Amino acid sequence: MVKTLPFEEPVIQLRDKISELKDFTSNAEVDMTTEIQHLEDRLQKLETDIYVNMQPWDRVQVARHPERPTTLDYIREIFTDFIELHGDRSYGDDEAIVGGIAAFNGLPITIIGHQRGKDTKDNIRRNFGMPHPEGYRKALRLMKQAEKFGRPIICLIDTKGAYPGKAAEERGQSEAIARNLFEMAGLKVPVISVVIGEGGSGGALALGVANHIHMLENSTYSVISPEGAATILWKNSALAKQAAEAMKITAPDLKKMGIVDEIIQESVGGAHRDSKQQAIFLKEALERSIETLSQLSEEELVDNRYNKFKSIGEFTE
């Protein structure tokens, strides 16, 4: 059963009421078609009011939904012949990042993404989707391999941020992220990044220096979590809702600011409601990006990426 978020309660209650009336009609042989139709019309309007006009904090909750599709879910639905590659050839293998070679509509590609767990045991194994430095070094190794063989790179972003623990810092967390930013800027193959859930801080940006950056409709992309921002600004993490509104971390806001190239539609109620349909939406966006970027030369791809990030923001003297 899909977990219900607080703002969805009115929709769930109305759906249950409609279901009860339909069961009553079929069992008691009483015609309540008119009443049911009236409630379904109300449901449609309510869903529009709630899901189409979601507030930033609502989108944060949807982005964090435990049943939201992960990188491996999309790999299974969209790509074929996936071969996962492990390790950074320096320290070890970080399961918070998965990556490897696959086929996309018959085209060889390299796919890399953050991977969080679906339950407590899996989350511990994946470190809750928060990579150590070896995870980013593994990602970079696969990117350089893709460049060597001329394969487009697709990155799926879904992390609260890079792991901030002592061991990660001792092994060079900041350097690993910075190295990815530097190297990704000069890759001579198409790079496409998609924020599929939470895109948190440098841990997300380390897979985000791309020619095209897309976001799922209810995903978030920010320098810090709303709770963290509220703690710094107002010394109170309970004000996370206000922080989410002020930070402009949702797909519509980021598209308006020119940081995101395309917003990918989500299934009604969120990607977790229909993961197969969501995979179709994502696949269509990737097809458009690959078709566009495949027409550019190596130099044009690098220039495109450079100009994209150079144009972000407003500068005054």
CATH superfamily of the largest domain: 2-enoyl-CoA Hydratase, Chain A, domain 1
Number of helical stretches of at least 4 residues: 14
Radius of gyration: 21 Å
Q: Sheet bearing the most strands, described?
A: 8 strands, mixed
CATH class of the largest domain: Alpha Beta
User: What fold name stands as the CATH topology of the largest domain?
Assistant: 2-enoyl-CoA Hydratase, Chain A, domain 1
Unreliable stretches, pLDDT < 50, 5 or more residues? none
Strand content: 15-25%
- What distance lies between the first and last C-alpha atoms, to the nearest angstrom? 55 Å
Nearest-integer average pLDDT: 90
Judging by the overall fold, what is the CATH architecture of the largest domain?
A: Alpha-Beta Complex
Order of helices and strands: HHHHEEEHHEHHEHEEHHHEHH
Number of E-type strands = 8
The overall number of domains is: 2
Helix content: 40-55%
Class derived from helix and strand content: alpha/beta
Shape: globular
What would the keywords be for this entry?
317 residues; alpha/beta; 2-enoyl-CoA Hydratase, Chain A, domain 1; 2 domains; eight-stranded mixed beta sheet; 14 helices; 8 strands; globular; ATP-binding; cytoplasm; ATP binding; lipid metabolism
Describe this structure in words.
Strand 5, helix 9 and strand 6 form a beta-alpha-beta unit. This protein has 317 residues and is of the alpha/beta class. The model has no long low-confidence stretch (mean pLDDT 90). The protein is globular. Helix 1 packs antiparallel against helix 2, helix 4 packs across helix 13 and helix 10 crosses helix 11. The protein has two domains: 42 residues; 246 residues, 2-enoyl-CoA Hydratase, Chain A, domain 1 (Alpha-Beta Complex). Strands 1, 2, 3, 4, 5, 6, 7 and 8 form an eight-stranded mixed β-sheet that branches. The longest helix has 20 residues. Helices cover 50% and strands 15% of the residues. Pfam families: ACCA. It comes from Paenisporosarcina antarctica. Belongs to the AccA family. One of its GO terms (cellular component) is acetyl-CoA carboxylase complex. Component of the acetyl coenzyme A carboxylase (ACC) complex. First, biotin carboxylase catalyzes the carboxylation of biotin on its carrier protein (BCCP) and then the CO(2) group is transferred by the carboxyltransferase to acetyl-CoA to form malonyl-CoA.
